[in-house]
Amino acid sequence: MLALRLSRGSHPLVLLRRLLVAAASAGVGFLLLCTLSYAVSGPHPADPAAQRLAWCLAPLAATVQFAVAVARTDPGTRPRQGLSAVGLGPVRMSALAAASTAVSGALGSAVALLLFLHLRGDLSGTPFDGDAAELLAAGEALPLGAVFLLLALVPVLGAGAAALALRPPRRRTGELPGDEPEHTTGAPGGLPWGVALTAVGVAVEAYTARGAGSTGGAPGGVLAGWTLTAVGLATAGPGIVHLCGRVLQSVRPGAMRLLAGRALMDDARRIGRPLGVVCAVVSTLIAASALAGERPQPFGPLTALGAVLVAACTVAALLTSAVEARQARAATRAGLLELGASASLLQATALLRAVVLLAVFAPLTWAVAELAALPLRR
């Protein structure tokens, strides 16, 4: 109940972000229900239902990532001074964030179920002249346990991921409650592992996609390769952003380069992983569009929905992480303004950070896309 009250009294932008999470949850729930209806409609040796379910994992993971990013920027579930006295400490606030995420996911799952039943004709009539009902196996009975299990994936996984992401850090020996953790700007680890995973993912994707193009199928190896690539870029993202900040403030930097470099180093962990995931998604879309006219497309009518969900959720998660980074820098920005820094300098610093990240990640995205598509070109 407390989570519902906090949701109802939130800022309109916060409510909009939660509604976007609900919309993404509805899209993923609809895809999962369509996969279930495809499975119960009969055996499909050429296109197994398990393979279609595996392709739903990418929209599911992107939706959970977006839900966690929204939970991290929710001011209603952020620990504040004095709330511990009334039983709302960091652990309870993280539980509230998880509950709010579960509410948004459950709302989207309910919408997905209603839309699915309406298109099947189970509620009233058969829209679209019965074409959608035929696609969704309207004449077959769906197992209720499987329906509720699939619809519960986004609320449960989103709530669990939000609780893990917002769990309070462990206090060190001798540290008092309320002490702020020491702020460090060290080199995030994972850059070598991220590069290795990306290379392996591109190789696996290219090898299995060659077989997919020749046989007309879409093996799960393509999804495995893309997953390795996405994990590798997400792992390497913080290190790349941190390295950009270090290079930017090297060789006798001025005030603007120094501020921009330090900000990139501070925000490396917040925006590095979402940037890496966006890089993986965009590179996959570029490679797929480049090969669209060269290979047969064994994709169903719901592939576009899954692609839109993945792209929209990853971009939204990146923008939300940028909002989180801006919120974290609010005190620093206010201190610089008090010390006499001009607002134009801070705006130019933010523009410089964006230009540097674009100059680094845009060629990286293009290079990964070319490497993935090169073995498939004849």
TrEMBL record:
Region (Disordered): 170-191
Keyword Transmembrane helix: yes
Transmembrane residue ranges: 20-40, 52-72, 93-117, 144-166, 275-293, 299-323, 344-369
Keywords for this protein: Membrane, Transmembrane, Transmembrane helix
Entry protein name: Uncharacterized protein
Organism: Streptomyces tirandamycinicus
